[in-house]
Amino acid sequence: MSTNNNEKHVKVLVLGAGPAGLSAALYAARAELEPVVLTGMQLGGQAALTHTIENYPGFPTGVGGPELGELFQKQAENFGAKVEFGMAYEVDLSKRPYKVTSDNGEYLADTLILTTGANPTHLNIPGEVELTGRGVSYCATCDGWFFKDKKVVIVGGGDSALEEGLFITRYASSVTVIHRRDEFRASSVLQKRAKEHPKMNFILDTVVTEVIGSDKVTTLKLRNVKTAVESTFDTDGFFVFIGHVPNTQMFKGQLEMSDLGYVIINDKMETNIPGVYAAGEIADPHFRQVITSAGMGAAAAIQATRFLEAESA
């Protein structure tokens, strides 16, 4: 219900419209809670930026990321969810109903489900954005299969870079890890496995300065950070694993977070504030998959439903 022209009172407000958010909306809508989803910047979340998703159940030949997001939205709306396009920029969790200020006005929410996601850290070099989805990727589990019997380059030096590199070796003919330092930050166990793998190669003290290609990645420009010598390297795929940044800035000082900025939740998706839940990549530094985010969103909505039912009992 609306309290005035610019303020809306809702039982369940979902921030974010990726797989976690839209799954939460679907479950809350089926519980007849009339959830409202505030989309943020990207309907469908990071999944919508993926050309083809081949590991989501029910789509034997794969499904386009944008298409899957639209299907999630339609299904949630069919049960009564309301998807509103807009950005939240301030959240007050000091008292219930919780106040969310957005470019659509203010919302007063009895429960909040936070699914604002996380963004992979980019190199911000020429060609990176233009060729994302055409050889540039930030998810080996999502896109590794597309590089079967092809040459792949990994950028990064931590656990994620070497883990993902080892994963891609099951598909690619070769995996070359490029790292700006002369030693890796990854665990010694991972380093040993990577260095002993016959498909893995390493270029150290080097940064990638440009991604080249017309409709797909063909070449990388490199620069040695110690000698400043520039070179090129031909490749079919370019994976960037230099970290993720959870979109949790709005909640700092209000919600408990890890050292990396992820919202801390328990196994019921509950945050440290009653009636506030988090799901998907905002609270998941480990898996970052469409299916796990969707499951977390469903669980959060189930818990929000039980929370509201307990209040009205």
Write up what this structure looks like.
The chain is α/β, with parallel strands linked by helices and 313 residues long. 23% of the residues lie in helices and 27% in strands. The strands form 4 sheets. Strands 1, 2, 3, 4, 5, 6, 7 and 18 form an 8-stranded mixed sheet that branches. The chain has a 5-stranded parallel sheet with strand order 9-16-10-11-12. A hairpin with a 5-residue loop joins β5 (88-92) and β6 (98-102). α1 runs parallel beside α6 and α4 (159-168) packs parallel to α5 (188-196). It is elongated. The two termini are 21 Å apart. The mean pLDDT is 93.
- Give the C-alpha Rg: 21 Å
Distance between the termini: 21 Å
Structural class: alpha/beta
Report the major sheet.
Answer: 8 strands, mixed
Number of helices, counting only DSSP H or I runs of 4 residues or more: 6
> Could you name the ranges where pLDDT drops below 50 across 5 or more consecutive residues?
none
| Helix/strand order | EEHEHEEEEEEHEHEHEEEEEEEH
Beta-strand percent range: 25-35%
- Average pLDDT over all residues: 93
Question: What is the oligomer described by this structure?
Answer: single chain
Helix content class? 10-25%
Shape call: elongated
Total beta strand runs:
18
